[in-house]
Write a structure and sequence with these properties.
Blueprint: E1 6-9, E2 13-14, E3 17-18, E4 35-39, E5 48-54, E6 64-67, E7 75-76, E8 89-92, E9 100-108, E10 111-120, E11 127-131, E12 141-147, E13 158-162, E14 169-173, E15 182-189, E16 197-205, E17 210-218, H1 226-229, E18 232-239, E19 253-255, E20 259-266, E21 278-280, E22 288-289, E23 291-292, E24 304-310, E25 318-326, E26 331-340, H2 343-346, H3 349-378
Parallel strand pairs: 19-26
Antiparallel strand pairs: 1-4, 2-3, 4-5, 5-8, 6-7, 6-9, 9-10, 11-12, 12-15, 13-14, 13-16, 14-15, 16-17, 18-20, 20-24, 21-22, 21-25, 23-24, 25-26
Length: 379
Amino acid sequence: MRTRWQRVVAVGTVGGVLSCGGLAGPAVAGEDPPSISQAYADPRPGEAIGIDLVGYERKPGVRLVAESPVFAAPIRMDGPAGDTGGFGYKAPIPASAEPGSYPLVVKARGKVLARDTIVVEPPRRPSVEVDTGGAGRPGIKVNVFFDDLYPGETGRSFTARSTAFSSPVRLAHDKGWNNVRTFNAFEVPLRQTLKDGAYPVWVTDGDGRRRAETRLRIRSARPGDDDYLGRAKGPAFTGEGGHPFEARTEGFTIVAGRKVYVSWQDAHPDPGEEERMTATSPAFQAPARLKSDLVKGHEADDPVFWGPARIRPDLDPGTYPVTVVSHRGRVRRTGYLVVTQGPRHGLPAAVWAAAGAGAAALGAAAVWLIPGRRRTARS
């Protein structure tokens, strides 16, 4: 849940050459000697940190080892450090470690290449955190993190509860490399009808006992907030096989019975709108559900909402409104599309084209056969 890096300059240089037995070659003037980096620094007892040596080019056959009085055993820094996801070599801190500062060195062939300090923090009681990803708005989806790393804690079944949630949320064991006592749940939806205020969020264990609690602050968008009115574009329209960025806001024509796609863009959509935005029209058989579409959008573009609607096949030709309401009714926009009837009151044009071609062929055959019969009669 946190990633902090520390980099401390290593042993000094003597006459421009590292004073560590020549294992790393001459130091270049103006460049720092090797240093130790720590990922997930300032650990608690039972956590792990990631250790790496920066600014050092290892020679063939040279093995690195990290040593500290706080380690249960030296940490070998050989081969790929794959178990930390790129955060260096895993160095566990024993659960029995006392809080305090501990020296850390990285050695090669018994010679010290770099020095640093590991600061072990005191244990913390189990805690729960709710990440809103920004403003805490009604209807958004949040992530819940429960940290149970504390002496004596061994449970495996935990549930997050709140009146802000639609229902209790089961937490999954994260099994992270640096903390084996984390449990979480992602994209937990908040109720759409929440009023402004602070809502308690608590975690219970398998026996229903409360283990940790926090408060989730909710505040609806207000005038002046980016997401109060947003910056909407649309509705715009395109046919089947089209792309949202090809959609047109004016002059779009479609045949009754066909499918139209409605596009809507907003630089600052209301949180949770991807679950409830629709486009309505008397021309549609049913409202079009507009879903957030990351695939059809681009990273630098405003968020895109996109969805299909079927034009009523019995519709009279004419111009029809299409309306999108967003930001909890604060934004209402209407566009217009032109509906035409296909040949023969909506039958597909291809059917009538085929029928016409068939009729023409039959007529030609009849013209040829009649003269042929007359010539036979004269003979």
